[in-house]
Structures are given as structure tokens and as C-alpha cells.
Amino acid sequence: MLQVDVEEGYSNLVLNKTLRAESLSVQDNAFVSTLFYGVLERRLTLDWVILRHSRVKSAKISQTTREILRMGIYQLLYMDKVPPSAAVNESVKLAKRKKEFSAAGFINGVLRSVSRCEIQNQKQGLDFSGIADPLERMSVEHSVSVDIIQKWRRDYPNDAEGLINSLFVRKPVVIRTNTLKIASGELAELLGEEGIAVRLHPLLPNALVLEKSESVEKLSAYRNGLFHVQGAASQLCCMAVGPQPGEKILDLCAAPGGKSFTLAQDTGAGGRVTSLDIHQHRVELIARGSQRLDINSITTGINDASHKNEGLRDFDRVLCDVPCSGLGVISKKPEIRYKFLTNLDKLTKMQYLIISNAADSLKRSGRLIYSTCTLNRAENEDIINAFLADNPGFEPEPLPSRIPLSDRNIRHMTTLMPHRNNTDGFFIASLKKNEN
């Protein structure tokens, strides 16, 4: 927890590094993961509970003590299988192990107070009615920054409430069949033999939805390269690219490689996918994934997509899934909940540079796909509208009919909403370069 808060590490990387360093049982791994992500995504609610039961001002509570309190309260309120006495006693022991000796009694008192007063109330849900300001109340109840709430209310007035309510909803794990090696029906049977129940995705012909979120990396079907994990929104983005057999495809911001793998499978042995990213270690992820899937048509390389590269020319289709604020994947990356959205100018300038460079890499009549995993018009519609205004050589290209549209009158771009589409929040736009 301290690494995410203090060092601003990515939650999944921090957790994975910690788990690799410990020798824990499967059960303990699951417990630690649940507690870690739960505390991170409920932080504002937990801090509000702390203040309700503490006589010490927030500024005087050390970071370590605060984290121990958050973990203890989360167990008391959200983990039914943890006895209250165990949550309290283990939190006090942890404080002593962390040399927070003077805080041990304080932690004991706060947690016992929470145990007495809040657990009974929790059966009806925590009562936030005492928070006078409606925005602050919503922020505390859903543990998301006021900035994000205000942004969604401005950008998506009809969807803001649904988006906020979807923040704690886990998306199903979706995998993409490696069609170079196996058909989806056969893969479903193999996974069933491994005890994994799956169902066909309603919109994606080569996608399977896992009924339970298992550790897919341990499955023999995964080790044998029969599928890769790729969310439904990301696969719909590949559908928008619409690769054809034998085509030359450019994936400009490709790591960790899921879209490149799908595009390579769709173009077949005669196609070529150039899969680039700015960091060497991320490019290596693409290369390792290609090797596991036995895909030989992907060429990887290091490239900064915000700078022109004269060597990238005459591609049939170009995908730029640009770096973004990530507001569509909050349920996967809970640290994003607490973002302040006051300094996005640098990000949107970079996004515009990337789409402009992508346009230079496209041949005449080629298709350009711009996508993000954020819900923010400044990074989505505004970028596309500005690009079209500045580049008369491009025109809107309708998205494939299987892709859900957020506005029936606008067919070249769409915003996928978690509460409407059961996907990550995602934006996709399709443009075509004129022949002249």
C-alpha cells in the first residue's frame, strides 16, 4: 500500500512484485490481493470512517498508521470471513512490527469503535447523509475524486451516474482465440476439460468469456499459445481496424501486445504487423507474447510515436491506441480513482502528435484507427474533430456494424461505456485517407 501511495507505483506491478517476493499459499495470495485492491479502491470511504472514530486530527496520523487502519477497517466492513477480533488484533500486531508502538493503542481503539458502531450499520450500508455537500458525499461514498465526477457530469450528463455506480463492478475476463492454431469451439472444449467454464462473446466471433476469473497463465491452453487475454473493448478496437489477409499493419503504441496479436492472426501468414512501443522492456513483452503464440508475422521495435519516423510509410492500416488518462479502466487500476484532471494539456498535445504521425504512415485509401481507454471528451472526440478540421485529406469512415455506437447519428466514432456495454470504458474512431 505504501508503495502505491508514496511512490505512485502502478497497483498491479506493486502487488505482483510483493507476491513474488513472498512464499504464500494460494489462499493467502487471494486474501492479500483482495485486501490490497479493496483498500486501494475504497480509500476515501475508509478515511471518512477513520475520521468518524478518531479523536486525532487527520494530519497527525502517520502514513503507516493510516494504512494499517485502512486495512483493519476494510476487513471489518467488507470481508465477512474475517472475524472482527482477528482484524483488530492483527492490525495491532502489525503496528508493533512496523515499530508504530505509540500508535498501537490508538489503532486498537479506533478499530474497536468501528467494530461496535459500523458493522451493524453496514448491513443497511454506511450512512453518508451527514456529508452536506452532494459532490463530497458522492466522492466519499464511491471513493472517487470530485474532479472525475465533475468531468463525467460535464462530458456525459446522461451516463455520469451509471459510470460512477459501475466503478466497483468487475468486468469479466475475456480471451481471444489464437485462430492460427485452433478454433474457438475446440478451445472452449479444452478449457472445459481444465475445469474452466466459458461462453461465446455476443459481439466477437473469436472471443470467449471466462465464467470465473482464474489464473489463466497456469492453464496448459495458455502455455501452449492457444489464446491471449484481451478485453472485449480492445478486441472491438481490432475489429474497427478491420485487417485483411496479406495487409501491412502498423500498431504504434502496441505494448503489451494484445491488439498486435489479434491483428496478426486476422491478416494471416501473408500479412505483416509492425508493433512498436517507446520502452525496451515493453517491446520485449510483445516479443515474448508473439513467441508463445507462435506468431511469426510481427516485427517489434522501439519508437516514440510522438516524433516523426520517416521510415514508417505506406501502411494499409494504422492503429494508434494512445497513452491516456485511463478513466475507462478504473475498475482494473483503482489508483486512477484519485486523479486530478487539471493538467491534461500536455497529454492531449502528445495524443494529437501521435495521430498526426500515424496519418503520415498511412498509404492512400488506408484506414486510421484512434483509440483510448479513457472517458474524457478532450482526449477523444475533441482530438478527432480537431484532426479532421486540420487534415482535409482525411474523412470519417463508418465503424463496422457490430461495434455498438454511442450516437446513432455519428458512425465513425463511439464511446463504449462500462454500465451500458459491459466493457472497459473505451473510445474508438475510424478515419480514411483520401485517394488524392
Quick recap of the structure?
With 436 residues, this protein is α/β, with parallel strands linked by helices.
Radius of gyration: 24 Å
Sketch the topology as an H/E string, one letter per element: HHHHHHHHHHEHEEHEHEHEHEEHEHEEHE
Give me the CATH fold name of the largest domain. Rossmann fold
- CATH domain class of the largest domain: Alpha Beta
Helix count, per DSSP? 18
Q: Average pLDDT across residues?
A: 92
List the uncertain runs: none
Query: Which structural category do the helix and sheet elements fall into?
Result: alpha/beta
Name of the CATH superfamily of the largest domain? Vaccinia Virus protein VP39
The total tally of domains equals 3
Strand tally is: 12
Outline:
globular
User: In angstroms, what separates the terminal alpha carbons?
Assistant: 56 Å
Architecture (CATH level 2) name of the largest domain: 3-Layer(aba) Sandwich
